[in-house]
Every structure is written in structure tokens, then in C-alpha cells.
Amino acid sequence: MGEYGQFCPIAKAMEILDQRWTMLVMREIVSGSSRFNEIRRGVPKMSPALLSTRLRQLQRVGLIERHSRDGGIDYTPTPAGQELKDVLETVGRWGVRWVGELGEQDLDPHLLLWDMHRRIDPSRVPAGRTVLLIEFTDLAGSAARWWMILDSSPAGASADVCDFDPGFGVDVRLSCKLRTLVDIWMGTRSWSQAQRAGELSVDGQRGAARALPGWFQLSLWTDVPRPSEPSTVSALHPVS
């Protein structure tokens, strides 16, 4: 981790936080991911070797702790790490307000489905097991089809995401382009708007198909007010 050689507390904090992927790894940990593979599913473009390195660094500087549990390893935030949750939410709100429209390179189905699975509304999910198949009509290969298995019981609700057929019958099938579902998730358009425009279709058991939008609480950023003028801040992307 580099040093800036300044006494400014922002500089001292950034000596820890400004390495590539560090804040996104902390985003996953403070959001509840504790196992290595859970964290990796939130940062799918990060190599396992680099993730291992970052986790060791974060443990060394005191932002996370490593515990053995049930034959595996848990990574949990320390008080200092947990306090970054407010920082991350502030950065996220700033990003929604001031960073321009998402480019095609920003549309990641892995992150979208991982985000959705941890934002289910337990009070709205049908009792028992419900299997949702999501088909992205503009993608090919394994990225085009995703299964979400929702389980609800009196003890609570849970969800799991698979990029392979888990072998259960499908109750509801959702078909759309990836950008359409990202826009809905981020709150820039609604389910009903996409359906009326013919850009999204839902098929399956009648009651479940109609109730589908209510199963999920949308992204944390849907209620962030956008500026009245278009953003002039642009994200940096590699020049091809």
C-alpha cells in the first residue's frame, strides 16, 4: 500500500483504501458476505489470487477479522471496517447523482443477480420453494440464463443464485435484455414501464408471475434524487 507522505486524514485513509478492488471487497463484507466464495460472487471479475491478497491486507490493517467456523473461514468487519458502510453508501449516492449513464461494459449479470438475491422481501415471497428463471435475451452462453431459488418458511426467507440448471421445476420465467433489468434494479424505470414497452415478459404460474416485482426490494440507490441537469462527470474506461 502506497504512502502519500501527508498528515491529512484523507491521505492516511486512502493509503489503506485506494488500492484497486479494496472498497468493493469491503462493500461485499459489510453487506453480509463472509465466506470467500460469497465475497467473490460480488466481485466476479477479480481473480481469486488477488482477492486472497486483498483479504490478507485488510486483515493486517485491521478492517476485517478471520474466523474458523463449521469447517470454513469467515471474514467479518471489525468496528473500523463496519464504519466504512456509511462511507460506501455516501460514495454510492454520489455515484448515482453525478456519474453519467452506465456503459455496456458496466452491465454485469453476475453482480446484478447477486445484488437481487440479498434484497428479497421475506414478507412477499411465496411459502415454500419458488424457482425463478431469468433469461437475458441479448447475452449468449452461460451468462444468458440464471436460476434464483427462493425458499420461504415461518423461520424466514432465503435465496440462492445459480448459473446452471439446479434441476428444479421453474415456477416463473422472466425474459428481457440485461440493461432493462439493470435499469429497473437501479430505479431509472419501473417493471410496468418495461412491460408496457414490450421489453420484458413474465410467464409462469399466474399468481406468482403477477406478484414477482414485489418479491424484491430494489437497489439501495433507487431513492437517491438525481440532479436536475445532466451529469458532466464521466467514468474512466480503458481506451481501446
TrEMBL record:
InterPro entries recorded: HTH_HxlR, SCP2_sterol-bd_dom_sf, WH-like_DNA-bd_sf, WH_DNA-bd_sf
Give the UniProt keywords, A-Z. Answer: DNA-binding, Transcription, Transcription regulation
Q: Per the record's keyword annotation, is Transmembrane included, yes or no?
A: no
Q: Name one GO molecular function term.
A: DNA binding
The domain of life for this entry's organism is Bacteria
Residues annotated as domain HTH hxlR-type: 8-103
What Gene3D superfamilies does UniProt report for this protein, alphabetically?
SCP2 sterol-binding domain, Winged helix-like DNA-binding domain superfamily/Winged helix DNA-binding domain
Q: Does the keyword Transcription apply?
A: yes
Q: Which PANTHER family match?
A: TRANSCRIPTIONAL REGULATOR, MARR FAMILY, TRANSCRIPTIONAL REGULATORY PROTEIN
State the protein's name: Helix-turn-helix transcriptional regulator
Lineage runs: Bacteria, Bacillati, Actinomycetota, Actinomycetes, Jiangellales
